[in-house]
Amino acid sequence: KAVLTVGTPLNWPDALDRLAYVREHGIDQFIEMWRRSQTLTRDDDLLWGDEVEYAILRVTDKQAKISLRGPEIRDALATKEEAHSYRTEGCAWHPEYGRWMVEGTPSRPYGGYAADLCRVERNMRLRRRRLLSELAEDEICPTLVTFPGFGVGDFATGCADLAPNGPVARSESVPDAVIHPHPRFATLTKNIRARRGGENVRARPPRFVDTKTPRDAPTTIEGLDAMAYGMGACCVQVTFQARDSTEARYCYDQLAALAPVMLALTAASPCWRGVLAATDARWDIISASVDDRTPAEDGRGLSDSDDRLAGSGVRQLPRSRYSSISRYAFECDGPAGQVRRFCDVDAPIDEQAYNKLKAAGVDEALSRHVAHLFVRDPLVLFEGLIEEVDDTTATDHFDNLQSTNWNTVRLKPPTGLGIGGIDSNPAEREPGWRTEFRPMEVQLTDFENAAFSVFTVLVTRVILAFDLSLYVPLSRVDANMRRAQRMNAATSEKFYFRRQLAPNEVSEAQKFVNCCGGDDDDVFEEMTCLEIIDGKGDYFPGLAPLAYAYLDHIGCDGDTLARLSTYIELVRKKASGEAVTGASWIRKFITEHPEYQQDSIVSPKIARDLAVAAHDVGLGLRPAPELTGGQVIRPITRSGAWDTRLSADKIPTKEERRELLARY
Ligand code: ADP
Ligand code: MG
Ligand code: MG
Ligand code: MG
Ligand code: MG
Ligand code: MG
């Protein structure tokens, strides 16, 4: 990972004739990989890791601009990490779509011990410190989902050509220079536009109407006409390894149902392109910003059938390739028709792919899952890496589709060849089946990012250990996703949630199949986030008490428990309103700013002050107890970002010595 293919990507007209090849061979590669993974009897340990995305901005007194030094900074960080790799704790730095962004992960996944849950925040803080140490004096790196000044006027710096209307995005407001320079990203952008029929992508978040917002102002925020508006939004993701494919698929389903609740609790993007939105979260905006559907596919008009495209470019596709899931992935046989009944939204599949998967012996649910990924076209094809790829050893073509189906959860199969063996260090071994949780918005502080990441992992442990299920019909999950983005959803909205988490008694054979208790309508109801977290009535225990019960059950030590309870309590406080969401905090900052005119407009100066404040909150230099539920963030400084050797070789000069001694 973090390695971008070296090569020349094909423009859409040249790619068109090769799409079918990649789609077909992507399926072959999946089947090969699936077979390999069937023959390896794995009982993988829990390993997990988070991903945090950062924005790099350059500030003056008046304005902040995105700083297009992301790749340069990432490379410098990667080199330094390399030099520090002998240390046990480190970070890894990954390129992101935006040239002003970087992504950081732990250098190695965390292990499956309770104490490992306490490593997360420390590693996140180390990442922030290391990133900070690479910045120029006038640069900042807040963990803001979006910089409110993005797309407004002259908002970028660090590159010669910053004119909008470039050949790649053809955006009226966003220059092509904001896209990461690796050709993959420009090609992705261009080909999405080309596949749509040459039309720009367009997101339209609803405008927040304030007391002085002009009556004739558009009801939506206009001009979000580039992929960068969405893919430039920062999130926090959590990936964890399952014992095997069954467990990974089960977790995939449970987390899909949990996703809207976590989106609501982490919502932190109330402002786009200099205008306050009437929504709090990024989801629909990203979804629109990478929507490559043809007019016929998404029903916005007519378009010609073209046999080179997936579904000839005319198969109806109800969703963008960035979306909540369309199908549960767990195979629920036997008496448990319920999972299948709960797959009650349209989930088109590629018939050819489906037939091939079934013929290869892949079960119904997994076949449908994969065949649904393959209703899309591959978007970036590299010359020399198409027919040349060996389907028995490589997974490039499968990964091509998999990595551009951006869903709330992702099922990651073991794409390696099973090398590494069972004897090697589990953290160095090739990954097994994993589930990635992708809905959460990045938080301003590492305390919050750690809390939500840890809470997610605890919920999965509870579900597996107590044999619970969160299944509700996917149509309700969709409804929840819409609600989750509304203003103050964390405290004001209700979500369809499963009220019967546990079956009465289940046999071993029924493990994972316990989702079938009760009639469909009885098993779920609408709950607030607080009820979901804290419990409701005498029938729904709540996720937080379950997490505590689980920690008690595994005999978690007191120190660890003390730390973990600050995380669980933060999540509870976000749901009760005792701690505000990032969106509320940002909205309040903007609307209370002296320059704000009650007209929904966020001026460059307000955007600048917000970015600086966010950066300082992240560093613990500006208290924000309302955000962290009272938790004080210990300050992070540039010093000590990299290990300092206890060196006896570094001999001070006479002058230095005098100066040093005078100081102490
Ligand atoms: P992507 O961007 O494709 O989601 P990344 O490599 O950026 O992937 O992040 C994946 C996360 O998964 C990282 O936090 C990493 O530490 C973690 N991870 C790596 N290997 C494993 C594994 N075997 N099991 C679980 N998580 C892992
Ligand atoms: Mg990543
Ligand atoms: Mg990404
Ligand atoms: Mg990322
Ligand atoms: Mg990821
Ligand atoms: Mg990624």
Describe the 3D structure.
The protein is an alpha+beta fold. The protein has a single domain, classed as Creatine Kinase, Chain A, domain 2 (2-Layer Sandwich), CATH 3.30.590.50. Helix content is 37%, strand content 9%. The chain is built from 23 helices and 16 strands. The strands form 5 sheets. A 6-stranded antiparallel β-sheet has the order 4-5-1-8-14-13. Helix 7 packs parallel to helix 15, helix 14 packs across helix 18 and helix 18 runs antiparallel to helix 19. The radius of gyration is 25 Å and the shape is globular. It starts with 11 loop residues before the first helix and ends with a helix. About 2% of the residues have low confidence. It binds adenosine-5'-diphosphate and magnesium ion (5 copies). The site of one magnesium ion has 4 residues, from strand 1.
Summarize this, please?
The protein has 664 residues and is α+β, with helices and mostly antiparallel strands. The protein is built from 23 helices and 16 strands.
